[in-house]
Amino acid sequence: MSFKHRCIQDLAWVIQSPPIISGSINGSYWLNKADCDAEYHACFNALLQLDQHPEPLLNALSEIKPYVIGKRFECFIRFWLEISPNFELLDSNVVLQGKTQTLGEADFFIRELATDKIIHLEVSVKFYLGTDDLSQMHHWYGTNLQDRLDIKFDRLASHQTQLAKKYPELIPYPVDESWCLFKGRMFYPHQQQQTQAFFADDCLQGAWLIADDKTDQKHFLALNKQQWLSEISQHHGELQLAPSKIKYSRCMAEIDAGKEVARYFFLPKDFWERKP
Length: 276
Prior knowledge:
Blueprint: H1 6-16, E1 23-25, E2 28-30, H2 33-52, H3 55-62, H4 69-83, E3 87-97, E4 102-112, E5 117-130, E6 140-141, H5 149-158, H6 163-166, E7 177-189, E8 205-210, E9 220-222, E10 250-256, E11 259-267
Parallel strand pairs: 2-7, 5-7, 7-8, 8-11
Antiparallel strand pairs: 1-2, 3-4, 4-5, 5-6, 9-10, 10-11
């Protein structure tokens, strides 16, 4: 279903979209598509109500810089946990301070109402472009080429999700389980889409191509960072052809009959030469 307000569409996407990676990893539970589908259905009526009066969400988003997509994602997570009939939000962004240094920051602490378990929840949203051997995590990069999937995955698996185990004396709650919600979209080289073994089932996909490559005369809508989450459900304004000779990567949605049918990154000709 398409909600009236773009911010509610994004909130629904944050709840329902399939994770990039799921399973049991290093003693933590990484949520899967079935978990996300079930939670979306549980929250559906609350989403409809929020769509009628989205002001609280709009106000919260207005305090976040629109290009800081990670903070926007966390804001949506917070709203999800507040409307969910399955969880109670206990705390968020808990800084773990050691004697001489900060040891980490835990994203969320929640109570699962059905079991009364207290859960430490880490969340992340990422958009990666694959190159060369796509079966290797270290060949998936963010548009900031310093950002790599293997580095992010290791950080989540070996540090962020382990905070409650490493520093129980600094955690304000008796944590029973650690969960991770890792969402986003993986962009394959154009016409080379396939799912690799380490991705979750139904992981969202897109494609990347060099901006001066020959492309069909398709029509695109340029997306700023705050539009990277949910798909465009209705657009009846002006569109443009594929860009050329660009200096920076550009995220664009292919639009057909007013709806998004594919998501792309167009890259400068020297983009991959900039890898560190």
